[in-house]
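Here is one chain, start to finish.
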Amino acid sequence: MPSSTPSPLPRRERQILDAIYARGRATAAEVLDDLPDPPSYSAVRALLVKLEKKGQVRHVQDGPRYVYEPVVPRRKAQSSALERLMRTFFEGSVSKTVAALLDRGAAELTGEELDELARMIDRARKGGR
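Its structure:
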């Protein structure tokens, strides 16, 4: 079972885990298709075995193939990654993190998305979720 504060994964293991999260579940061949500058198929298989031993993924057998899925639910992984990002780049500040996101993508936000953000801010002011 993975700990609640796992040690950071090496870059390639992180990329493999990200590929699995993006698909929900994936075979080694599908992971290979999604990797930038992909290593060999056997290297991906070896890294999947490492990730399984670390408790990051598990597999189910589908005929001759292993299909891998993340052990940690996507929502929990998102929260953990966001917390690391905020601590590393934004001094743990939610407002600095949101400001950076808005600076980067404000022009791409639709009116509906801006309205939803306003509702979230109103709920936060009232102490609700």
